[in-house]
Amino acid sequence: MLSPRPFDNANSPILVALSGGLDSSVLLHVLAHSPLRENGLRAIHVHHGLHPDADAWAAHCEAFCVALDVPLTVVRVDVDRASGLGLEGAARDSRHAAFKSELRDGEILALAHHRDDQAETFLLRALRGSGPEGLGAMRPWRAFGRGWLWRPLLAQPREALHEYATAHGLNWIEDPSNADERFDRNFLRNSVMPLLRGRWPHADASFARSAELSAETADAFAHIDDATLDSLLGDDHLPCDVVRAMPADARARLLRRWIARIGLPPLPADGVRRIGSELLPAAEDRVPHYDWSGARIVQWRGRLHAVRQNDEWPVDWQCAWDGSSPLPLPDGSTLALEGAPRFDATVRVRARVGGERIVLPGRTHSHALKHVLQERGLPPWERARLPLLFTADGTLLAAGTDILAAVFADWLDRHNARLRRSLA
Q1: 225-272: per-residue pLDDT in tens?
Q2: Are 118 and 211 in contact (CB under 8 A)?
């Protein structure tokens, strides 16, 4: 009989990701008959809307949860088919976003990945040329959203799950897309792995064991790389001269660890190579960059900066604002006036278009905003998303929250107020 693997937060409530397939049905059934249920147990089903039977699958999950007396939340998502991740990757991103939005503080998200899944993931990562971190594949336990992610069945072969489901009379959904070998994982599962098992019966276990050993190696290196990062950083930048002097393997590990720590998507192998060949050797008066998956690394003034690429602001964007409530900006951040109920008069907020001038505190004449931003060392990518505040007659009051015109700085001081920007 299956039993869930132990975990550190044994008193935390559990949220089970329930697709209605064999694996997640077994996981929910096991936990529903486990002492862990006493800590709180509920389920979530993500309705992707990609299959004509999606409504029926949600209804199946609802009936299954009623039979187990487990509360179920059904979340409908819109899968971004134009994301560039492919349909499978875009659906996974939408699903994980739904999990994070529903996960409560300290709650544990339980996923039903098993040993066969781990073997497939190891092979997929190997085919992409991954190092130890990537080959470590899926971890049984990690931080996730406001809580934790747990894979209690990761050591179990799929055959064991099937035997459990049969023995307990469980019914489950068979997703026909699992037979579509246009998807890499399905091709491995349906064509490659049976061939390998025919020659090496324990292939799944061997690949899963290699993933475990790779994870141990990656964790050991991570401790070393964390210590190096702690000695070098600013969280968002690394000194080029130090990184350039590192051995290539140590540099690659450090870059990947840095990106993981910031929370950006994993850095591809091509990214590591191009950073070493194009960004690190570049002269300081150039601003070369490398882009991937909505993220960017920029070499600027002898440092590598990691940037999340939010959508560019529309060139004609502007908005009237009285300061009484936070102002949403086009990149997802917000601008707020704190300490005062509102401005004396409504201001106009827009992005830079060029040619702006500002009278700084202690000065009697205006300066070109372009020169002020350069002197303050504001990176070019931040200048493009800097909210500017103007009076009705076009006088520049502020560029962001720190560059203030004399008249506006005086007004804030008199009201014991300030501007604050909350990033997306």
Answers
A1: 888 788 776 556 889 999 999 999 889 888 988 888 887 888 888 899
A2: yes
pLDDT per position as a tens digit, 316-367: 889 999 999 999 998 888 999 999 999 999 999 998 888 999 999 988 899 9
| Owner of token pair 């997929």 | 124
Q: How far apart are CA 237 and CA 229, in angstroms?
A: 10
* Domains present along the chain, CATH in parentheses: 14-208 (3.40.50.620), 233-308 (1.20.59.20), 318-422 (no CATH)
Q: Is the pTM of this model over 0.85?
A: no
User: Tell me: the pLDDT tens digits for 379-421?
Assistant: 888 888 889 999 999 999 999 999 999 999 999 999 999 999 9
